[in-house]
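Title: Comparing notes on inverse folding

I've been comparing how different people in this forum approach sequence design from structure. To keep things fair, I'm posting one structure and asking everyone to reply with a full sequence. Here's the target:
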């Protein structure tokens, strides 16, 4: 902490205006308090154990040692500009990490010995979600980087509009998902969330504020999208909107044959008319319903259990077709045509008819249930991978069958669905396999203090197996510990990634918890 204090002292001479406001309820270490009062600083920095504890961990509940010196609760984006400028102009710059909703799993939003910026505090001063229209862009929403996607959805639905690309879970911030990609079953059609942004406001690692887009400050725009928080803090995003469908036909089909399952998934993402395609696996230890959505009736669950007892793994294809008042009379016929010829196990097609909100927010009820059982804040050694289509069978045999199923230690949903690379712009920082179609795999593991390490060991075995077998996986929401791994991850994008870091965050202040430039 001493370097933060010395930075503060050295920089204050140049700051005539008040920097930040101190929360009176904070437990402030004496030296900070004295310093702050004597120098007449007003700050929103907190040092209390609750704030520090909150900012030291995340949804993963695995990394707990990245303890920051302070947490900034900004009431305006100027507070963030001042904080970053303070660090940047100091002789001993200190690390700073934006924390969206802290739903990373490996400490990516932490800043050991630095300052974590709690983005949610911007809520009152930010743009919130404002809907507009222009002849060049059509409908769009200006959204604060700290906004949760659930709030963006609620606000845009009031105008009969909605974003087109989603994540499965909506209690994530706009800045947090745009720093990764924002993936769900709509990505095959619209691209990930990062492909559906017109414009961003960003505070760089030099404390400079820029508006950027494909046309203005484009280098910063592409750097930040999928940039793992390395180049700047997103304070506003202009998001693509479309007319919101009223209702959703939500279908699940079960397969015992992996080859038929993937063939049908790939067929569905190749045709026009389908709005969402995903898939997940049911294995001996998993239940047909899980926290990601309670879909099946008790009667269905029992039929599925007996199917599962005959086959070691069952594959569940999930497909959605939107409809509204205009198509209400034709939707069933359209859906039937879209699904005809698919090779799911006879008698194992299930359907639901729900509102758009109920579909998009499908994970929330499972979350609340787990929270009430004390099972939400447990260790989550998640592994998310992108696997090229040409290697998915080898991955299935080596990883799904011979490791995950055979070892039977995996607890939690396993997602597996294809998507199109054409929806991703190569100028963005996000990384995908170099094939037109690749699979998104999510091992969404939940453990306890006794068993999460075994699951994590399995994750390492999976990565080692892929490397040895020459399966060219890319981690999504990546987590590495060595520079060699990061260079390998970014591949031919690494040089650009490094150059952009030098340009926008030369003192390597931002998002140190990603462990790309610091601590490697
Ligand atoms: P945080 O964890 O707070 O931050 C993530 C990173 O982004 C950090 O490096 C942080 O410093 C940086 N950051 C945060 N805010 C900003 C900002 N405003 N500007 C710049 N950098 C910033 N992902 C998907 O793609 N699809 C899914 O379906 C999906 N489902 C999920 C379900 C659950 C239950 C959970 C826990 C995660 C899921 N994720 C999914 C992963 C999620 O998108 C990422 O972990 C995302 O980073 C979480 O957002 P957050 O707001 O919590 O970010």
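Reply #1:
Here's my take.
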């Amino acid at each position: 902490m001493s370097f933060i204090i010395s930075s503060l002292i050295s920089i204050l001479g140049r700051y005539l205006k008040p920097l930040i406001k101190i929360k009176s309820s904070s437990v402030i270490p004496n030296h900070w308090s004295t310093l702050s009062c004597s120098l007449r600083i007003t700050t929103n920095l907190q040092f209390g154990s609750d704030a520090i504890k909150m900012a030291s961990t995340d949804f993963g509940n695995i990394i707990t040692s990245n303890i920051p010196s302070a947490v900034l609760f900004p009431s305006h984006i100027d507070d963030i500009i001042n904080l970053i400028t303070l660090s940047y102009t100091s002789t001993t710059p200190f690390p700073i990490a934006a924390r969206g909703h802290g739903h990373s799993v490996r400490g990516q939003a932490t800043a050991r010995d630095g300052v974590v910026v709690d983005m949610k505090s911007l809520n009152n001063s930010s743009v919130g979600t404002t809907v507009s229209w222009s002849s060049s862009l059509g409908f769009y929403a200006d959204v604060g980087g700290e906004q949760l996607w659930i709030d963006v959805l609620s606000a845009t639905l009031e105008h009969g509009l909605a974003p087109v690309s989603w994540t499965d879970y909506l209690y994530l911030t706009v800045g947090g998902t745009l720093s990764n990609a924002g993936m769900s079953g709509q990505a095959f059609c619209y691209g990930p969330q990062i492909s559906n942004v017109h414009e961003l406001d960003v505070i760089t690692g030099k404390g400079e504020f820029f508006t950027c887009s494909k046309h203005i400050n484009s280098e910063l725009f592409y750097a930040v999208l999928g940039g793992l928080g390395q180049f700047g803090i997103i304070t506003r995003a202009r998001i693509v909107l479309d007319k919101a469908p009223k209702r959703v036909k939500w279908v699940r089909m079960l397969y015992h044959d992996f080859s038929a399952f993937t063939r049908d998934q790939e067929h569905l993402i190749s045709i026009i008319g389908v709005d969402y395609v995903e898939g997940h696996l049911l294995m001996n230890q998993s239940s047909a319903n899980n926290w990601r959505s309670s879909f099946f009736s008790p009667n269905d669950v029992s039929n599925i259990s007996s199917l599962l007892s005959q086959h070691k793994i069952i594959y569940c294809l999930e497909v959605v077709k939107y409809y509204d008042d205009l198509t209400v009379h034709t939707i069933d016929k359209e859906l039937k045509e879209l699904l005809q010829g698919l090779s799911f196990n006879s008698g194992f097609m299930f359907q639901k008819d729900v509102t758009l909100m109920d579909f998009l927010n499908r994970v929330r009820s499972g979350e609340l249930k787990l929270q009430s059982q004390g099972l939400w804040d447990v260790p989550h050694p998640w592994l998310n991978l992108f696997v090229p289509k040409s290697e998915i069978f080898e991955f299935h045999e080596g990883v799904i069958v011979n490791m995950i199923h055979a070892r039977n230690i995996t607890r939690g949903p396993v997602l597996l669905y294809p998507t199109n690379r054409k929806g991703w712009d190569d100028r963005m920082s996000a990384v995908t396999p170099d094939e037109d179609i690749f699979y998104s795999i999510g091992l969404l593991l939940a453990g306890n203090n006794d068993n999460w390490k075994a699951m994590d060991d399995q994750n390492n075995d999976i990565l080692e197996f892929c490397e040895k077998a020459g399966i060219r996986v890319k981690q999504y929401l990546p987590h590495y510990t060595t520079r060699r791994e990061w260079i390998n991850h970014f591949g031919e994008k690494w040089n650009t990634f490094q150059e952009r870091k030098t340009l926008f965050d030369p003192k390597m202040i931002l998002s140190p918890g990603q462990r790309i430039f610091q601590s490697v």
